[in-house]
Amino acid sequence: MNIFDRNKGDYKMVDLTEFFEDVRKDAMDSGLKLMKTYGIKGMKEELGSSNPVRLANKMINFFIQYEEYEKCGEIKELIDEYKKECQTK
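Below the sequence we write its predicted structure tokens.
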């Protein structure tokens, strides 16, 4: 894809792969914020996620690619907390 470069007054190519990967990363970071705010249970009840644990595991796999293990740990804690709540009911 070409975009206009105002500094050079000409068009240049844009790497869409990098652009879409940045969009995907932003979406995952936003998803993590939501999950930390609402918890796994809230993702299901408040936001209508049909399988929030599967979604959380996909997020872990994504963050592993970027070696963001701290985020993986946060998500794992949320999953464990949710499973513990489900067992006590």
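The two ends are 53 Å apart (CA to CA).
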